[in-house]
Amino acid sequence: MLDRSLEAVTDVLATVPHVMFSIKSVDGSYLAANRAFAERAGVVGQGEVVGRTAAELFPTDLAEQYEAQDRAVIESGLMLTNELEVITRPDRSYGWFLTSKSRWTDETGQAAGVVCVSVDLRTAVDGAGPHARLADAVEVARRRYAERLEVADLASAADMTVSQLERTARRVLGLTPKQLIMRFRLEEALRLITTTDVALADVATRCGYYDQSAFGRHFRKVVGTSPAAYRAEHRSS
Predict the structure, then answer these.
(1) pLDDT 10s digits, 172-204
(2) DSSP state letter for 48
(3) Where along the chain do its domains lie?
(4) How far is the C-alpha of 219 from the C-alpha of 223, rounded, in Å?
(5) Does residue 30 surpass a pLDDT of 90?
(6) What is the largest CA-CA distance in the chain?
(7) What is the chain's mean pLDDT, rounded?
(8) Is the pLDDT reported for residue 166 higher than 90?
């Protein structure tokens, strides 16, 4: 059972667009979810989420990633804050989300589960346009992701200090400048993997990673599976 404060939060977020909200028990079963989460999970409504686990709703690699995050939050008591992730939508397009998770405790202070919020960044990045200097930094990240690009390069393009750019990017985009660079690198990697036969080692090089190993680690962390497995899945679908 949820306490009244969590019930109130659940009611508020029930139909909010571009924000996925869920609450899990310590055994991994969902206790609540909003409409956006149900759509992401590919089910008709929130009622089809409650009582099920990530393994029943998502591909194995992603479910294992989510469950590992949950365990870390429950065991450590530390929040997962603004983790940049790729999430595949029901139409098989992919989107970028910032995910935060927090441990939920009962009246005795014991861990009762996890509260999770994921925010769709698609609209937020488009919103950089009115902020001319920030838009300049975004454009440099978009065009030069394959280079050994540093945050200082973006700051210079925006005529800001690094700290000014960090604050502005977080406020307007919900992303750090480094996350922005990595976003464009991984978007291009996803395009090459799904639409070309370019070798994975060459994909890594073209997208600005130091080597294929670094590329593989980052890809798995964000997408939830290996580049090879992702290519195989999309070739078979």
Answers:
(1) 788 899 999 998 999 899 989 988 999 999 999
(2) G
(3) 4-120, 124-236
(4) 6
(5) yes
(6) 56
(7) 87
(8) yes
Cα distances from 74 to residues 82, 164, 173, in angstroms, run 17, 34, 28
pTM of this prediction exceeds 0.90: no
Fold type of domain 4-120:
Beta-Lactamase (3.30.450)
**Degrees (nearest 5) of the Cα angle 115, 74, 86?**
55
d(CA 135, CA 123): 14
**85-124 tens-digit pLDDT:** 766 666 656 667 889 999 999 888 899 999 999 988 764 4
11: left (phi over 0), alpha (psi -120 to 50) or beta: alpha
Asked if residues 183 and 96 have their Cβ atoms less than 8 Å apart, the reply is yes
The answer to whether residue 129 scores a pLDDT higher than 60 is no
137: tokens are 């930094």
DSSP state for residue 109 in the 8-state scheme: S
Residue written as token pair 């109130």: 8
Q: Element (H or E) spanning 233, and its range?
A: helix 227-236
Q: Are 81 and 115 in contact (CB under 8 A)?
A: no
Distance of CA 69 to the CA centre of its chain: 12
| CATH architecture, domain 124-236 | Orthogonal Bundle (1.10)
3-state secondary structure of 14: coil
Q: Is the pLDDT of residue 71 over 50?
A: yes
Residue pointed to by tokens 């709703």 = 57
Q: Where are the alpha helices (DSSP H) in 60-199?
A: 60-76, 122-126, 132-144, 151-157, 162-173, 177-195
